[in-house]
């Protein structure tokens, strides 16, 4: 992993069209401004991780539970 | 051509729509081709089955049958990836986590599945804000009929 030191208001360019700017550093909190093309997904890492976890949980469904679904009819 | 499925055995794919998830799904990045299979005797839920991996099958549901006032904006990266041109292009499904007992099941409303019905491209779109939960307990109306 590349590690760079930056001060508030300094930037990091990634490729031609992504720029990160350190807005503010306060205690253990860092505010980062991100400029990127509209087509780029920008998401908090832990959020993506929890969606991954939910998907992993969703595919563990066993046959028993699935068979219950078949009996539920449209009457849910 | 036939595929192996988790719940339906081996099935022919000719009649089925093959959905392409260019990015896979979070945590399932390698799975890019899926079909949607009905569940016999159940109009509410369907199976999102990976074409290449029979073990990867998720129960999905039309979120609007469970939550009437579900409403959100489709973000630019999703519109761009799926080449969505109008709201009529779009179908929305949500991933279920089914549990025993059934009432403790949840629906992921923070990361809905967005489908473009015109080009069969799809994506699980993650909402950055916390308006909707990723483990939303399924509501009272469902619990009532589920027993």
Commentary on this structure:
Chain B: It is found in: Cytoplasm. Chain B: Interacts with translational regulator CsrA and flagellin(s). Chain B: Belongs to the FliW family. Chain B: This is Flagellar assembly factor FliW. Chain B: Its main location: cytoplasm. Chain A: Belongs to the CsrA/RsmA family. The complex is a heterodimer of chains A (76) and B (147). Chain A is α+β, with helices and mostly antiparallel strands and 76 residues long. The longest helix of chain A is centred in the C-terminal third of the chain and has 14 residues, at 45-58. Chain A has a 3-stranded antiparallel sheet, with no helix packed on it. The radius of gyration of chain A is 22 Å and the shape is elongated. Chain A contains 2 helices and 3 strands, in the order βββαα. Chain B is mainly β. Helices cover 12% and strands 37% of the residues of chain B. Chain B contains 3 helices and 10 strands. Chain B has helices at 63-66, 76-82, 140-146, and strands spanning 2-4, 10-12, 19-20, 33-39, 42-50, 57-61, 90-97, 106-116, 121-124, 136-137. In chain B, strands 3, 4, 5, 6, 7, 8, 9 and 10 form an 8-stranded antiparallel sheet that branches. In chain B, a hairpin with a 5-residue loop joins strand 1 and strand 2. The longest helix of chain B is centred in the middle third of the chain and has 7 residues, at 76-82. Residues 140-147 of chain B have low confidence and may be disordered. Chains A and B meet through helix 1 and helix 2 of A and strand 5, strand 6, helix 2, strand 7 and strand 8 of B.
């Amino acid at each position: 992993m590349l590690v760079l030191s930056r001060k508030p208001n300094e930037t990091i360019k990634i490729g031609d069209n992504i720029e990160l700017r350190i807005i503010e550093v306060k205690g253990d909190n860092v505010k980062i401004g991100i400029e990127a093309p509209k087509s780029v997904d920008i998401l908090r890492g832990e959020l993506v991780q929890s969606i991954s976890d939910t998907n992993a949980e969703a595919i563990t469904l066993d046959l028993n539970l699935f068979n219950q679904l078949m009996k539920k009819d449209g009457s849910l | 051509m036939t595929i192996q499925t988790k719940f339906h055995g081996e099935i022919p794919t000719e009649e089925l729509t093959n959905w392409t998830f260019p990015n896979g799904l979070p945590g399932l990045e390698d799975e890019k081709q899926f079909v949607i299979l009905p569940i016999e005797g159940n109009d509410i839920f369907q199976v999102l089955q990976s074409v290449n991996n029979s073990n990867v099958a998720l129960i999905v549901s039309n979120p609007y049958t469970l939550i009437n006032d579900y409403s959100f904006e489709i973000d630019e990266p999703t519109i761009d990836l799926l080449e969505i041109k109008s709201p009529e292009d779009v179908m929305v499904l949500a991933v279920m986590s089914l549990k025993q007992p059934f009432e403790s099941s949840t629906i992921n409303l923070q990361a809905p599945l967005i489908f473009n019905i015109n080009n069969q491209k799809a994506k699980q779109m993650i909402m950055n804000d916390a308006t909707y939960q990723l483990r939303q307990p399924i509501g009272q109306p469902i619990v009532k009929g589920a027993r």
